[in-house]
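Table 4 source record.
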Amino acid sequence: MSSIDGIKKIHRRPSTRTKPIKNHFAQKKNDQDFFSNDWRRSRAEKIFPISVGHLLILVIVAIATIFGLASAENYKVELENQSRKIESDINDGLVALDQNDNKNALKAFKKADQRLNDLKINLQASGQYITYFFYLPESNSKLVEASRIVKMASAVTAAINLIGENLSVVDNRFNGNENYLDKISIVSEELSTIATAGSEKINRCRQELANSEEILKNSDSEHFKKIRQSLIDKTPQLSTALLKLSEVYQLLPTIFAVSGEKEYLLLFQNNSELRPAGGFLGSFAVANFRDGHFDSLDFQTNIYKLDKAFSAKTSITEPEELMYISNGLAMRDSNYHYDFAEAMKKTLWFYEQESGKTADGVIALDTTLVTKLLEIVGPIKMPEYNLEVTSNNFLKEVEYQVEIGYFDDPSNWSENEPKKILAELMPKLVQEIFAGLNDSEKQTKIISLLTESLSSKHLLFYSNDATVQDYFEERNYAGRIRDIEGADYLFLSQANIGGKKSSLNIEEIVGQEIEIDELNNVSKTVDIKRLHHGSYDWPDGINKTYNKLIVPVGAKVTNYQIISGDDYPYGETKNVEKSGYKTYEENGRTIIAFWQNTKPGESSEISISFKLPYSDDFVDSYRMLIQKQPGVPNQKQIVKVNHPKKRVYFQGDLFDKPIEFYLEKDSIVSFEFK
């Protein structure tokens, strides 16, 4: 059968309809005219079911959409304007933070926070128009990023506020007419009170800061990129500040004797007569705290009275080099050890033996710090001496009154308190410091100076309390001898013995040349050059210094040479047979000790070579820790490293000449061999 037949066969199938087709159409036509207007209208309504009302609604929606987009565009412009102002405010705050200007930093961050809050309120008040931000190019991501910035800025502001609140506790107490003793008492009480609850609040703030930082770090938005990065960059600084504040809070109850009593020695070290722990100890004060408040501050004007009474009953042998000027060791020479903490243990022991009292710690400052404080808060008028003390004349005028002016008046001979001027000057200086802390510009300078003085060792602390002492040592505020694993070591400790007040007139250059041979053995030559810029006029004179070059244990001297000046003990030719150097081991170090005397207007220079106990320790690199002596203001270091086979690099650059720097704090120098 063909396909055509199949088709024909299909058409021949009997119909299943029950009625003829003709009758069916006739029935439909009777019901409705297929071609009539009604029929066409009915079909249209089924396909497009829109009335006039619907059309009106669509028109209204279209108008509303256009209006909403226009309003959203206006809010977008407002967002742009405010974001620029917010960025400017926060940048101002960050700059203020860099300058330790916490007051203005806090002010700028508060201003930014207010703008951010106003922006949020305005956006929320826009109601449904916020929806249309999502239809504007980039508005969605910008709004999201703005919210993140708001959260981060709020966290930063909270941190600044918290720091500011705690600083203001102190700041507010500097106002008024109270004397400095009352102010110290009020501040100590306030700090003791807030310390208890402060740590928990600080920890919450640090956590919020960390959470906000994490959110911003995970953002890849191009919006607010600069301000976002600025906030991220400053977060570690704020977090560290909060951590430090928390750590201090934990110590305050102990330091201020919230329950009990604490006594501290305030030592004035005269570094114009340099000693290993900072300077000659001629004056001190005693500060007392009881039950969380400041109790008293007593300035001692004559340490010799205590020493004389003690030495009359007790004889303690002094170090050999002190025998020329001392008749037995006493408190005035007790700060002779090059490790400040060890020296202070002896000072506190002598204080107890000589006074019958015990002290719990020490705050030591030298004349360099006092002079720099006078630059900020001076001058100080002393009408009873017909004198105005400034940073320029402090050393000279005070020294004159102590050594000469006081004894020019016969009525003072029986009293015998030549350092009374210090006891009268120091309270006035402290009063001016407290007044200066209430001035934002002076406050910044004072805080910066004290911070620098801690690292440069013109201000040092010691405490008998192990927890407090650990805090000082961890931050290198305690003048300890330090160790750095895998590093060479050098510390030049000096004592002016019989050299009058000449130390601050000395310019010193310490040169080091390090040789590493083919077998990686290390040898070193240290050259100590001293230039005396002073005179023979009182209180200056020949500088007589006993040096202790402290190096790694096991070092062996190979050469000792006097280039200029002399090394006679006490600068006297009669001691020529005792000149030269000696070596010994102490506290896990080798000590190379020798005299070096420098006449005014001249120079002295001594060179010492020695082998170091290293082999294969510095194959690819060389590191060295150089420690600074307390009280030394301007020691210049020159370092050169030689390698027989490799090139030497310093800080990534080819090392083709010695590096030079002033040793303002303990420093690590590192070199690489390639």
